[in-house]
Amino acid sequence: MLKIIRTILHDVFEVAVSLKALYGAIETLGGVILFVVGPVALQKYSIWLMQYGLKDDYGVVNPFEDFIFNRLQQFSTGTWYFISFYLVLHGVVNIVLVALLWRKKLWAYPAAMGFFGAFIFYQMGRFSFTHAWGLVLASVIDLVIIGLIWEEYERIKKLSRCGV
What is the pTM of this model? Predict the structure, then answer.
């Protein structure tokens, strides 16, 4: 029974880490796009969407779309560039760590747990100011991934001691 659970955890680890790499690639691409396009162009595009693209046949704007539009208008230029820098940094770190985990580099497991833990710490600090629940969700997901990394790390250490 324990062997089956460990096999399932290993499979879940593989899927979770692969999704983390995909998420890192999307974050990196999004950060680069934010930086290249810039805040002024994105704000102009959001204004255009509100005027022409997001209204229904009766000229009524969806409340969710209105919320997004208002949020886009609140960001300063510095905030846009900080967000783009953070997305690129977080995405690249995720990709590099996942690549090292895929190669089963033993030292990468504690490094990944440390980096993901540091990002959780930062995200919770930001949450205390912004109350953005997406940060809590990202932190919970990272906690689960840290647990999976720990389990995989123990499995890899055991296999390396056995000479496998």
Answer: 0.77
